[in-house]
Batch of 2 targets.
Target 1
Amino acid sequence: MRKRKLIGPTDAQTKGMVLFLSITVFYAVLVGDFGSGRSHFQFSESDSLKLDSLAKALDAKFKEDSIRKASEKQPELFAFNPNTADKSTFEKLGIKPAVAGRIVKYREKGGVFRKKEDFAKIYGLSRERFELLKEHIRLPKIASERFPKKRFERKRQERKPKVLEAFDINTADSLQLIAVRGIGPYTARRIMSLRERLGGFVSEDQLSEVYKIMPEGLDNLRKVCFVDTAFSPWKLDINQASFKDVLRHPYFDYEQVKVVFNLKRRAGKLSSFDQLKRHVPDLRPELADYLDFSVSQEPSELQ
């Protein structure tokens, strides 16, 4: 394949320059002065005719090149849409055939020109040509609608509100919990974990104690859950439980458990929550529902 020159003189111009230089050198050899005295050569009439003939041939060649360039078809400038124009349209605009084909292939692979500057990124399109065509580029709104950006964006689906049936918070599974708006899998797991460590919920208000539960989720959960009036939570046998068992309960802290066991060593058996509350500071009232004192057979020495 013959390579086209992108810059520099054409072949005709090169030949003309070589011919011109040859005549100049020939003339210098005949009549020039190279530092060794004047030339002893004299032009004959035939030599003069040859020189005149060469000069006329060179002049005719230059005129021929000028006429050919003037007759060449000049690029047209008109409004065009780079997203819809075909290859021949690009060529009429003065874009080289190879570059025009590259534009078409870019579009065939899904490429879209969303703004004028995108057209300047086409490989092989000179900056001068782009600046000449820039004012003629048309990107109507319809093009943006045909190739919307949103097809590359993840569609965000709005969560439709669900009408849920009320359920017992002490028997609910994770699927029932996550169906509530604002309750995710992690929150559902924490609700069930707290329920297990407590021995069950005795009030819906205890749901606020769930670690990191969101206000929206808490409000929505309270609207659809309930505690059965017949429900009785699992109770911790305070007189038989080990130190670790008592400490595992969410409503006891370490210092309180120490006081409880010191009290048990001194009193033997604990008989009531009131007795425990008098000796252990800051006990939560809800603990009364979770402690079992029935093992005690005899009243303790400390009342």
Target 2
Amino acid sequence: MGEKLTLRDKYLKLKTGVRILICFEIIIIPTIIFSIILPPSLSKYTQEIMFIAVPIFMWKVVEGKSLNKMGFTHERKSVGDFIIGLLFGVASISAVFVILLASGNISFAGSIFKPHITIGTLLDIVLFIMVGFAEEIFCRGYCLRSIYEKNGSLMAVIISSVIFSALHFGNPNVTPLFFVNVVLIGILFSYMALEINIWLPIGFHAMWDYFEGNVWGLPNSGNLVRGIYDTKLTGINIINGGLVGPEGGLAVTLIILIGFLIVYLIKDNKELKS
């Protein structure tokens, strides 16, 4: 008689897509319940907690894999990669802002030296750090790495980036170019995660989202946020992305493509030093 399979062995024999779907359902069902019973000021945090905790639990406890295989390297340089990611995200979305301002696609009111900072502005730093961890752990940690183990890097990058884009289907004012750009950003984040580690896209993602809305006052994936600066669209077009925000415009497409070159140079520099 053959050796009896454990529950973990049986689970690992499931197709990768089924395991990803199970993970997502365990995340989304409690998230929906929390959104009903808790005020929005709290439920937005519980959603991010679920997207962080459940994939890690499924990966480490249920599937018995190390977090290192998810991309969480433990070297001292990982902190540096996270900080580089934070700065990279700030620089990238700020470059988008400058392009839109210089081309007349947005207008800027007030003075750069007189930001409108509130308690909410500061608290949202914590929220968007959580968003960076949540979406990257699920998409570039659990999904990307699970598919990579069975199907290789190309399929993993494409499918996980499509999943990332699909998570934004419910956003307001979305356009076809918005989804193209979100897939491209997903591919860029996957490139970071596979070639360097997951710390880099977590930092980038967190600060891109935070600075886009809370600092520069631009629509963030269709969501309107009061930024510390007062910015207005001068029109709705393919450059500025209209009401969905810069992710729906060609300015972001350009910055994403430049991002691939920068990541390549970061990777090349790391290889020269090692």
